[in-house]
Design a protein that fits this description.
This protein is α+β, with helices and mostly antiparallel strands. A 6-stranded antiparallel β-sheet has the order 3-2-1-6-5-4, with helices on both faces. Helix 1 runs parallel beside helix 9 and helix 11 packs antiparallel against helix 12. The radius of gyration is 46 Å and the shape is elongated. The N and C termini lie far apart (about 95 Å).
C-alpha cells in the first residue's frame, strides 16, 4: 500500500504546513545546486599519467585483491544436468585468514590442489549453495547474496558456519565469495527486533539511501518506492506536521540534530520517533543531505497512553472517594452523634461504638437514636439499612429522622415500627432495613421493644450474657419488605447494673457463617470482656467496655459497617 497522496490531506492548516515543508526542501535543493555549480569537482590533472606495466596481474593476485573471502571452484554435473560435486581450485588471502580464525577444521580447505568440497563439508550440500552454483553456471549470471548455514564437527563440539554467499561464473569455473556472519541479515534483524530503520535523503537530487529494513519497519510492501521527505510528510497525521517542519528547519537551516514524533496515517496508525542530523558538503558549509533514524514507538505510546488513562481514572476515582468520604463525615456527625447525655436523666449510662466499612469510604447504613420524649420516657433505636455507600446512608438518614418525628406522637413502639416499614416501602423495592425500636420506662425500669429482622438485644447481668427472648410470634419482617406488616413488642425488666447491648450484624457476621454461631460468638466475647475487666463507673467506664468488646470481635474478615450501642442502668 503506497503512502497517502498529498491531495488527501484534510484541513487548511495541514495544507499550509505541507506547503511550508515543500518550499523548505525546494529552496535547499536550489542552494545545493548553486553550491555545486560554484564549486566544481576540481581541475583536470596537469601531470601526465604514470607509466603502467603492460603485464596483467595473475589470477591469484586478482583473488587476493578481493576484500571478501573467495574460492575458485570447478563444478561437475551428471548427464541430467544435476550438480554432482564441486572441486576446490584455489582461495584468496581473505579466505585463508577466515580459515585460520575458525576451529581446527576451518571452513575452507588448506591443502593445495583440487579437493571435493562435498567430501570436506558434507553439510554444505544441504544449503542453498549447490542451487546457486547450478544457476550461475547454467545461466551465466551472478547469484546471491543468500544466507548459508551449516555445522562442522570438531573435537571441541559442533561449529556453526554462517555467511552471506555469492556465486559468480568465471569461465569454466565458479567464484564463490562470502562475508562472515551475514552482516546485512543481522542489520535487518536488528532493525526488526528494535523496530527501527534509517535513511539518508539527498537534498540536491531527492536521492534516498535507506536501510535494508526501512520498508518493513514502516509497514510498506517490498515493492513500494521509499518515500522522499515530502511524501513522508504527506503520510503523517495533521498534528505531526508542525513538529516535522521544526525538525527539518533545525537540521537544514540551523545545522543541528533535532527530533520529532510522527504519526503515520495507515490502516492502523503507527507512531515513530524521528531523530535527524545534517550531512554537510564540507565543514561549516551548507547541508546537502539529511540522515535520520526512525524508531517505531507505537507499542510504547499505546502503553503510555493506557497508563495515563488509568492514572486519570484513578485520580477521578480518588476524587470521588474523597468527596464520598467528606459526605460520609458529615452524615456520621449528623446521624451518629454523641448521645451519652440524653439517657443520663433516666438513670442510664450510655456508650456507642461505630466502625465504618473502609471499602465504602467510611459511609454505610448503620444508625442509632436516643431521645427523651414528652411523656417522660426514652426512645432508643438501632438500625441497619441494607447495602453500602451513599444509597444506604440516604435510607438510614430517612428512617432515623422519620422515627425522631414519629416518636412525638406518643404511639406505641409497635405502631412506630409499622410506620417506619411504610417509609421504607415507599422508598423503593431495594430499600430494606432492619431495626430494634425500644422505649425505656424509668418509672417501671422496663425496656419495651420490637424487632424488625434485626439481631435481638443482649442482656449482661452479673457478667453473664444472654440474648433477649423474641417478641411473641417471633421477630417481625425487615423494614421495606411488605407494606402493612404488623409488629409485636416484648418487655424486658432492667435491674441496676444490667447492661443492654444492641448491635448490627456487621460486628458478628462472617462469610458463609451460621447466624446462631454468630450470636454465640457475641455472647462469649461479651462475657470474656466483662471477666477481663468489669466496666468502670460512668459513661467512660461503659465506653471502655464497649470499645474492648468491638475490638475483640472486629477484624479483617468484616465486610460491613459495625455498630454497638450499650446502656447500663445505674439507679432506680
Amino acid at each position: 500500500m503506497p503512502l497517502d497522496d498529498p491531495s488527501s490531506v484534510d484541513g487548511v492548516r495541514s495544507r499550509l504546513e505541507l506547503r511550508a515543508i515543500r518550499e523548505l526542501l525546494e529552496s535547499q535543493r536550489r542552494r545545493v545546486t548553486a553550491y555545486t555549480e560554484l564549486h566544481p569537482a576540481g581541475p583536470a590533472p596537469s601531470a601526465p599519467p604514470p607509466q603502467v606495466s603492460s603485464a596483467p596481474p595473475s589470477l591469484q593476485e586478482v583473488l587476493d585483491a578481493l576484500p571478501v573471502a573467495a574460492l575458485l571452484v570447478v563444478p561437475v554435473f551428471d548427464d541430467d544436468g544435476a550438480l554432482r560435486d564441486v572441486f576446490y581450485v584455489t582461495q584468496n588471502a581473505a579466505a585463508r585468514a577466515y580459515a585460520a580464525s575458525r576451529p581446527p577444521l576451518g571452513s575452507v580447505p588448506r591443502e593445495a590442489g583440487p579437493a571435493s568440497l562435498f567430501e570436506l563439508f558434507p553439510a554444505l550440500s544441504r544449503t542453498p549453495v549447490p542451487g546457486m552454483m547450478t544457476r550461475a553456471y547454467q545461466q551465466g549470471k551472478p547469484q546471491g547474496p543468500e544466507t548459508a548455514e551449516w555445522l562442522v564437527s570438531t573435537p571441541s563440539g559442533p561449529v556453526r558456519i554462517s555467511g552471506e554467499v555469492r556465486v559468480a561464473p568465471c569461465g569454466d569455473h565458479l567464484l564463490v565469495s562470502w562475508e562472515r556472519g551475514s552482516r546485512l541479515r543481522m542489520a535487518s534483524a536488528t532493525q526488526h527486533l528494535v523496530r527501527s530503520c534509517w535513511a539518508e535523503w539527498n537534498l540536491g537530487d531527492h536521492g534516498i539511501e535507506p536501510s535494508r529494513g526501512f520498508r518493513q519497519v514502516l509497514g510498506l510492501p517490498g515493492d513500494t518506492p521509499v518515500p522522499d521527505l515530502l511524501e513522508l510528510a504527506t503520510a503523517t497525521t495533521p498534528d505531526s506536521l508542525p513538529g516535522l517542519y521544526r525538525t527539518l528547519y533545525d537540521v537544514i537551516l540551523r545545522k543541528r540534530t533535532a527530533e520529532c514524533e510522527l504519526r503515520l496515517r495507515r490502516r492502523r496508525e503507527r507512531v515513530f520517533r524521528m531523530v535527524a542530523e545534517p550531512v554537510r558538503i564540507a565543514p561549516g558549509s551548507l547541508v546537502w543531505a539529511l540522515r535520520a533514524v526512525l524508531i517505531d514507538v507505537t507499542t510504547d505510546r499505546l502503553h503510555r497512553e493506557a497508563a495515563e488513562r488509568a492514572a486519570r481514572e484513578a485520580r477521578r476515582e480518588r476524587e470521588r472517594t474523597d468527596a464520598v468520604a467528606e459526605v460520609a463525615d458529615v452524615l456520621r456527625e449528623a446521624v451518629l452523634p454523641h448521645f451519652q447525655d440524653e439517657p443520663a436523666p433516666f438513670g442510664l449510662d450510655a456508650a456507642a461504638v461505630y466502625r465504618p466499612d473502609a471499602r465504602e469510604a467510611g459511609v454505610g447504613g448503620d444508625w442509632y437514636k436516643a431521645r427523651s420524649l414528652p411523656d417522660g420516657r426514652l426512645l432508643i433505636a438501632l438500625g441497619d439499612a441494607r447495602g453500602h455507600g451513599l444509597e444506604a446512608a440516604t435510607l438510614m438518614a430517612k428512617l432515623r429522622y422519620a422515627l425522631a418525628g414519629l416518636a412525638y406522637t406518643e404511639e406505641s413502639v409497635e405502631r412506630l415500627t409499622g410506620w417506619l416499614n411504610e417509609v421504607a416501602c415507599a422508598d423503593g423495592s431495594e430499600s430494606t432495613a432492619t431495626a430494634i425500636v425500644a422505649r425505656f420506662h424509668p418509672e417501671r425500669a422496663l425496656l419495651r421493644w420490637t424487632c424488625a429482622g434485626h439481631p435481638r438485644p443482649v442482656l449482661v447481668r452479673d457478667g453473664l450474657a444472654a440474648q433477649l427472648p423474641a417478641p411473641e410470634g417471633g421477630p417481625g419482617l425487615p423494614l421495606g419488605v411488605m407494606p402493612g406488616a404488623a409488629y409485636t413488642a416484648t418487655t424486658t425488666p432492667v435491674e441496676v447494673g444490667d447492661i443492654v447491648l444492641m448491635y448490627s450484624d456487621g460486628l458478628t457476621e462472617r462469610r458463609t457463617s451460621d447466624p446462631d454461631l454468630d450470636t454465640r460468638r457475641f455472647l462469649t466475647a461479651a462475657e470474656h470482656c466483662f471477666r477481663e475487666a468489669a466496666p468502670g463507673v460512668g459513661n467512660t467506664g461503659l465506653q471502655d467496655y464497649a470499645e474492648r468488646l468491638v475490638a475483640h470481635l472486629d477484624g479483617p474478615h468484616r465486610t460491613d459497617d459495625a455498630t454497638l450501642l450499650a446502656l447500663r442502668r445505674i439507679s432506680g
